Amino acid sequence: MNNYPIVEMDHVSFKYEKETVVQNVSLTIDQGQFLGLVGPNGSGKSTLIKLMLGLEKQTKGKIRLFGQPIKQFKDWKEIGFVSQKANSFNSGFPATVLEVVKAGLVSKIGTFKFFNKKHREKALSALKTVGMEGYAHSNIGDLSGGQQQRVFIARALVSDPSLLILDEPTVGVDSKHVTEFYNLLGRLNKEEGITLLMVTHDIGTITDHATHVICMNKTVHFHGASEEYDEFNEQDLNRLYGHTVQQLTHNHDHHEVYHND
Ligand SMILES: Nc1ncnc2c1ncn2[C@@H]1O[C@H](COP(=O)(O)OP(=O)(O)OP(=O)(O)O)[C@@H](O)[C@H]1O
């Protein structure tokens, strides 16, 4: 792709009917970044992503993707998306892991074209990238939440996107496997050069993984490097989250404690 920023938002606002849920957001996502998008429940994170994906149209402001106004942007295979509800296949769902991953190629080859050997290899290679090649012929519903999540990432990777957007990808991942999961994302970012934007509620650990953090509550309250976010003090977070957030640091592990008072 070109050297333009991947996403540029310029004074973007959005309302569902009457209520403004995204207000005057200006931000830039540059190639190679791993961004964590944090904010309280209902603060507009998913809506901001829908705006970037062209699934909702901003009521004010401008959005550019890879340097092009979003209205003219056509190269959607450059953007992979793993949604919040991705890992919800029940056991018995009649699809193999390989079939689920190949479905990610539909935007590339068109709905009514057939998959060929090259597509199969591409899907297997994406499964290898996420460490799931041994499960290609397993039934998707028989996998754990964390394994399914890896498969959904593989599905988003088959079209070789430059940007991968993940909406709360650690939901449903067993806590024992969360670190492993973050390591996978780190590898995609550093070794595969994929820019990552990840919505998370994990405000304590995000800076261990992300290079940059965006903290929003309708509008952007912080956007900067992870090191700066660590200095974004407790009072700022309390103000944003509307309740007390204590960040406790034990060695390198951070834990959040919420008091609803
Ligand atoms: N389709 C919709 N129609 C009307 N209001 C909506 C719709 N989707 C979301 N909202 C409202 O917009 C606001 C922002 O929602 P959004 O899902 O973007 O927040 P979020 O930060 O992603 O929340 P969470 O962390 O809980 O997932 C909320 O008040 C929500 O109730």
TrEMBL record:
Keywords linked to the UniProt accession: ATP-binding, Nucleotide-binding, Transport
PROSITE patterns given in the database record: ABC_TRANSPORTER_1, ABC_TRANSPORTER_2
SMART domains hit by this protein: AAA
Record-annotated ABC transporter domain positions: 7-243
Pfam families in alphabetical order: ABC_tran
GO molecular function: ATP binding; ATP hydrolysis activity
Family assignment from sequence similarity: Belongs to the ABC transporter superfamily.
PANTHER family in the record: METAL TRANSPORT SYSTEM ATP-BINDING PROTEIN TM_0124-RELATED (PTHR42734)
Name this polypeptide is given: Metal ABC transporter ATP-binding protein
